Amino acid sequence: MGVTEGTRARRGGAFAALACALSVLSLLILGRCVLAMTYLNIRFHDEVDPLSRAVSYYVFAERAAEVFVATLVAVATATLAILAGLAQLRVRLGPRAVVLLIGWSAALLLCAAFPTDDSPRIETGSGWIHQFAGASLFVTLPLACLAAATSLREQHGWAGTARLLRRLAIGAVVLASAYLVARLPDLVVWWQFPGVLDFRAVSGLVQRGLFALELAMLLALAVRLLRVSWSAARQASRHRPQAVAR
């Protein structure tokens, strides 16, 4: 019995340590992404207006493309690292949330691999793939966090994170809707919008606010994962000698 308890303690500690490492990795990646996007917005504001232009156009700014593409890949990597860390602790997000988070990661990679067109209208296959993948980014992560919040609020130690995720996700849905409204003149090209209803001048700012909320959702998950996994690892290390001694 003592050997069995000791084995369980070691396994629990190993899973917790792996979850802790994955949470640290995701936090480092996300922190770098925040710095990278801040750098792009400041350094290239003359080439890509942060108020009116979408972040996708950084691929057409000299020396900005590599940073932007690397940031998209990094966010996808951090998302998958968070998912893997949560799995180590058997934290239940629910199948819908997991599928949406994987879809969010896949869409980020598609946006990185297929740049948009540098023209008012989409003219290439790469541009269409980017547009559809980019549009999915506005809904997949907020919906994933709403679904995850429903599952997390019933689990010990995750209720506070669930409430925060829900608030951030609702804010993201509001901004996603606002971005869609701002881009209507580009989408409904056959109708002449009056100037008072044309919000394209601030569409870039709305999009950046949306991405900031989405990064905040991932950071909230990663921070809580670090705290829970660190606590679990310490608890397992304290119990391991007792289990072996029995």
TrEMBL record:
Keyword vocabulary terms for this entry: Membrane, Transmembrane, Transmembrane helix
Listed transmembrane segments:
12-40, 67-86, 98-116, 128-152, 164-185, 205-226
The protein's name is: DUF998 domain-containing protein
The record ties this protein, via InterPro entries, to: DUF998
Question: For this UniProt entry, which residues form the secretion signal?
Answer: none
The species this protein belongs to is Saccharomonospora marina XMU15
Q: Which domain of life is it from?
A: Bacteria
